[in-house]
Every structure is written in C-alpha cells, then in structure tokens.
Amino acid sequence: MPSVYQVKEVFYTLQGEGARSGRAAVFCRFAGCNLWSGLERDRATARCDFCDTDFRGTDGPGGGRFESAEALAEQILRQWPRREKGRADGGYVVCTGGEPLLQLDAALIEALHARGFEVAVETNGTQPAPPGIDWLCVSPKANAPLVIETGDELKLIFPQPAAPPERFAQLDFAEFLLQPMDGPRLAEHTRQALAYCQTHPQWRLGLQLHKLLGIP
Ligand SMILES: C[S@@+](CC[C@H](N)C(=O)[O-])C[C@H]1O[C@@H](n2cnc3c(N)ncnc32)[C@H](O)[C@@H]1O
Ligand SMILES: Nc1nc2[nH]cc(C(=O)O)c2c(=O)[nH]1
Ligand code: SF4
Ligand SMILES: [Mg+2]
C-alpha cells in the first residue's frame, strides 16, 4: 500500500472516451507517470510524447495527498451526486492519471467497493493491475512494454507508426477502439482512424466526447 496517495484532481464529469463514453463518473487523476515527467521541456525525449494531460502535482480541484485508502475513497464519494448512508450505490469512478497503476492498490479498490462504486481504470498497460478492477481500459504506447494483455477495452491512440493496430488485434479484450491522436493534426488523424475502422471492422472509432462538449 502506498504510504500516501498523490492525486492531481478529483472531479465529477462524463466518461468522454472509449466504450463507456457518455456515462457519468467521478474521475480520480493520480499524479505522476512512468512515461513522461509532465514537463514540456522533457516532452520530445519522453517515451510517451503526445500526452494531452496535466498530471503534475496535487494542486488541482479536489486533489491532494491522502494518507489512507479510506480518506481518498471519502473524497471520491463526496463528488458523487446521490449519496445515501455513506454510499454511492450505482456510482462509477474512473481512476486515471498520470499512470494510476503506480498508486492504485487493492485497499483503495476495496474502499471504493465498500461505498458502492464500480471501479474503472485507464492505464498505459506497463504495470500489473491489482485485483478487483471492474473495467480495465488499456492504451498501449509505442515505446513502452505492454504487460497487461487482457482486459475489457483496448483503446489505441492512432496513429502511432511503431504501434500499429495489428500488433494488438489478437489480444484478449472485449472491445477494440481507435482514438485519434489529439494535437495540431487531429483532423488528419481522425480521417485516418475512420478509414482504418472501415477496412478493419474489429475496431471502432472513439472520439473524445468531453473535448467536443467542452467539459473536463
Ligand atoms: C492521460 S492518459 C492517463 C492514463 C494512462 N497513463 C494512459 O496513458 O492510458 C488517459 C487517456 O488519454 C489518452 N491520450 C493521451 N494523450 C492523448 C492525445 N493527445 N490524443 C488522444 N488521446 C490521448 C491516453 O492514451 C489514455 O487512453
Ligand atoms: N471527461 C473525461 N473523460 C476521460 N476519459 C479518460 C480521460 C483521461 O484523462 O484519462 C478523461 C478525461 O480527462 N475527461
Ligand atoms: S502514459 Fe498516459 S499519462 Fe503518461 S504521458 Fe502517456 S498518455 Fe500521458
Ligand atoms: Mg483526459
């Protein structure tokens, strides 16, 4: 168990990505990642160089340093709109980052389950996952090892020339999504992803709904 959980932000929004896009969720964004420092000056040499997220520090809305699984679970519970008797039955929490699997452990998952939450994770797949996760979304990165080869959703950011979809198509996932890489060439990436999905129907196109809606 980490001695302390370092969390950038905790906020209530809609899941904007992947197979469960559109579902109301509390997001718990853990600080820190193993593939990038989060500093712009390091981006060009990082193993993951296209990240769209600020995950440095613990200074975001609802973020902080949490001394126990119970304390962090209570902070997550406070964001859920319908609470009864200290529970959020039917609640949904998405653990992301940064890289959540550097910090998420069985104790936190248990503390969230005890409050009625279903627990989803967004990971780069470079770390083993603790037991108990209800929805595991893996998003492989071209320059990093993939150690998680089974899960609910494989969400590949496209295009990554050194990580073509064919490399992942045989893995044990229920859903396969291509998510166009955001940045100055988003429109071109979206057209390319659309064309790939039309010629390879195992894959479906995933657009980042929260960006279209202008929500966090
Ligand atoms: C910020 S990451 C955090 C979770 C984890 N580190 C990971 O990479 O899966 C959340 C999701 O955003 C995706 N993502 C990051 N940068 C992106 C970009 N420029 N365009 C589209 N998706 C991006 C990641 O691949 C991942 O699926
Ligand atoms: N609304 C919303 N949906 C998301 N799905 C995955 C996200 C992430 O940053 O992991 C994300 C995010 O940052 N916002
Ligand atoms: S692995 Fe995830 S959090 Fe880390 S830099 Fe890449 S997209 Fe961002
Ligand atoms: Mg995001």
From TrEMBL:
Domain Radical SAM core: 20-216
Reaction it catalyzes: 6-carboxy-5,6,7,8-tetrahydropterin + H(+) = 7-carboxy-7-carbaguanine + NH4(+)
InterPro entries per record: 7-CO-7-deazaguanine_synth-like, Aldolase_TIM, QueE_Cx14CxxC, rSAM, rSAM_sf
Annotated positions binding substrate: 14-16, 29, 96, 216
Domain of life: Bacteria
Cofactor: binding comment: Binds 1 [4Fe-4S] cluster. The cluster is coordinated with 3 cysteines and an exchangeable S-adenosyl-L-methionine. Binds 1 S-adenosyl-L-methionine per subunit.
Keywords: 4Fe-4S, Iron, Iron-sulfur, Lyase, Magnesium, Metal-binding, Queuosine biosynthesis, S-adenosyl-L-methionine
PANTHER family, sorted: 7-CARBOXY-7-DEAZAGUANINE SYNTHASE
PROSITE patterns named among the record's database cross-references: RADICAL_SAM
Residues noted as binding S-adenosyl-L-methionine in the record, renumbered to the chain: 50-52, 98, 139-141, 179-182
UniProt keyword Iron-sulfur present: yes
Cofactors required: Mg(2+); [4Fe-4S] cluster; S-adenosyl-L-methionine
Gene Ontology MF annotations: 4 iron, 4 sulfur cluster binding; carbon-nitrogen lyase activity; magnesium ion binding; S-adenosyl-L-methionine binding
Family label: Belongs to the radical SAM superfamily. 7-carboxy-7-deazaguanine synthase family.
Lineage, opening ranks: Bacteria, Pseudomonadati, Pseudomonadota, Gammaproteobacteria, Chromatiales
Protein name as annotated: 7-carboxy-7-deazaguanine synthase
The keyword S-adenosyl-L-methionine belongs to this UniProt entry's keyword annotation: yes
Biological processes annotated in GO: tRNA queuosine(34) biosynthetic process
